[in-house]
């Protein structure tokens, strides 16, 4: 009798576990979770296009360089992505598909790699491109915004009059880490009366929690890198 009860209980437990894992597998994030448990490498996702097959090609073209520019840093090198015309085009296309027809009149690119992705996006969606540069790089009158880094301060500058009050702006950079630079860019644009619609980056390092510093402003990324 006890054997039968034990067998029935075991069978029920197995059925419950099967249902539980079937439920988990119905979520698209599960492969990322499993990868974090089994691999020290990379997990790729898109905030809105995680099923798009182009993302895998983009991910594989981004080189990770350990201990650059200093020890302990895993540098995400997008120059290898630029060497592949298809992967580069797919990257731009994914952003254009998201922002075309959204009445965005300004694409603000952050120095320096935001200058790579911002202009083609701006051209494709019919917006102007505004460079946000480090100090003393722009001639003429500028407006400045300081921001705090982990070990000091930095500053972004924009030409006075480049952005008008009421314009809808998209902020573009290659990567979000701690989020300090994106916050400074948004502050700069909002100080002149622009509406920041969204921030767009190719890569996010979620462990550095930069997204949390954006004060709820939407962030769209193509690739998420998880380091274990």
Attribute tags:
26% strand; 7 helices; 228 residues; Rossmann fold; alpha/beta; two-stranded antiparallel sheet; disordered N terminus
Descriptive report:
It is a single chain. The chain folds into two domains: 1-38; 40-224, Rossmann fold, CATH 3.40.50.2020. It has helices at residues 2-25, 30-38, 54-60, 79-82, 85-99, 114-125, 180-191; strands spanning 63-66, 74-77, 106-110, 128-132, 142-149, 152-159, 168-176, 195-204, 219-224. The chain is α/β, with parallel strands linked by helices. Helix content is 36%, strand content 26%. The strands form three sheets. A five-stranded parallel beta sheet has the order 4-3-7-8-9, sandwiched between helices. Strands 1-2 form a two-stranded antiparallel ribbon. A two-stranded antiparallel sheet has the order 5-6.
Write down the domain tally: 2
> What does the radius of gyration come to?
22 Å
Proportion of residues in β-strands: 25-35%
Order of helices and strands: HHHEEHHEHEEEEHEE
Q: Would you tell me the structural class of the helices and strands? A: alpha/beta
Strand order of the largest sheet: 4-3-7-8-9
The description of the largest β-sheet is: 5 strands, parallel
Distance linking N and C termini: 49 Å
- The CATH level-2 architecture of the largest domain is identified as 3-Layer(aba) Sandwich
Low-confidence stretches: 1-10, 12-49
The overall pLDDT average reads: 84
Q: In one word, what is the shape?
A: globular
CATH class of the largest domain: Alpha Beta
Task: Please report the number of helical segments.
Answer: 7
Helix content: 25-40%
- Would you count the extended β strands for me? 9
Within the CATH hierarchy, at the fold level, what is the topology of the largest domain?
Rossmann fold
GO molecular function: adenine phosphoribosyltransferase activity
GO cellular component, one term: cytosol
Main location: cytoplasm
Organism: Phaseolus coccineus (Scarlet runner bean)
